[in-house]
Specification:
It comes from Heliobacterium modesticaldum (strain ATCC 51547 / Ice1). Keywords: DNA-binding, Transcription, Transcription regulation. This is Transcriptional regulator, marr family. There is one protein chain. This protein has about 160 residues and is of the alpha+beta class. The strands form 2 sheets. The protein has a 3-stranded antiparallel sheet with strand order 1-3-2. The protein has a 3-stranded antiparallel sheet with strand order 4-5-6, covered by helices on one side. The chain is elongated. The protein starts with a helix and ends in a 7-residue tail after the last strand. The relative contact order is 0.15.
Amino acid sequence: MKDLLELFFYNVKCAVQDIGPEYNLADGQIFLLHILWKSGTCKATYLADQIGITSGAVTGMMDKLAGMGLITRERSEKDRRVVMVSLTDEGLKTVQAVQEARFERLKGQLRELSGTELMQAVASFQKMNAVLKPAVVVRGSGGAEVNGDREVNSENEP
């Protein structure tokens, strides 16, 4: 089972990994944009935690994305140490375009499956998503509260 899952994730990654260069983005930058797209405005430290990198590394990544006009950063008025990060309109368009390109790439490769096989896969993914669902409560477009202990919504800064 472990080998099968590793192979599956590897194959999916290979299928979509070369899309980033079309947008002049590295995989980590795409991941950061995706987190912002799903979570809304959030703290830079939250992004670093989600990606699994240091705050210094996320700062470098954000410098590049801000220079490309894809994100904005603002310091909290309550605590100047806190940096809140948001997608710009261009960043939103870019992350949506990358996601659509990835979807189209996978869809093209999955055409080899029969309709029945696709329906079985969809049912399996739905069940796995229900079982693996993370403890995230999404609140409108403002952000998310993770495990009830970390506020990442800009409306509720520390």
